[in-house]
Amino acid sequence: MDIRSLDGDDPATISLLLPGFQETMSLELPGDPPVSQDLLARLLQRRHGADRIVLAAFDGDRPAGCTKLGLDLGVPDGPGHGSLWVFPAFRRRGAGTALVEAARRELRARGRDRLMVDAPHTPAAELFATACGAELHSTNLRNRLFLKGPARAGLDASADREVPGHRLVHWSGRCPEELVDSYARAWGALDAPVNGQAEVRVPTAADVRAREAEAERAGHRQYVTAAVGAADGEVAGYATLFVRDSPMADAGETLVVADRRRRGLGTWIKAGLLSRAAVENPHLALVQAWNGVHDDAVLALNRRLGFVTDSSWSTYSVKA
Fold it and tell me: Residue 15's closest CA among 34, 41, 33?
């Protein structure tokens, strides 16, 4: 296998890898819509505050699989965290092992000593992780909400239940100028790590604008719903959703600042966001959300809104 480094922001990379991803995901997640160019572009692009390594294994001129790793630029010795795929026609031929070894070399060259890789939680993945000397680090659940099913009525009802002392503000694309600083402050309270992305530190309005541009470059419309306090005009919580030219959208963050919790704001915000996106995007049929298996508050919120867990994915950690 020949390992090559690719640019995840180059449209040629997306075109080259898309057929293999489509074949892989149709096998791993047969109930999902086909992988689109926009989805793969979002997956492979550099994220705000992070670098991105994309390595592909080739058999001749055909890509056999790839791995992508995000590197938090604010933590120069932190791990590389990403995912690895071996396309179905090339499995059990050494592509996965070659990609892991190549990723380890890239990380060592950058002074990083830990590789963290996500994979479906299956016996095959566990055997491969053991063979590579990796240990289970954490597990995430994939939750899905079908917007055209019976859950829709409950979603709309939750969106109509107002929380006293607050109002909902909706936008897509660009945050209103009068809220951008407050929105950045709320974002700074987020404490859940996201695979391959930079840790949230003290974001500013410029960081908000950079993240908006990032989604736009990958062909995604970022929907946001925020609860704003009537008395102080501050963002008390928000939820994000990424919509593309596909029947499936990706839930992003859901946050309520600490002193406004246990009032029903999270349910109201997220229900309002999903209801609005469904109305404005008739093609949208389902939403997927990824949550840590121990993130009890968000898992409970998603269950209230009608999300159902359909699979689990694990993160494995191995010394570079």
Answer: 41
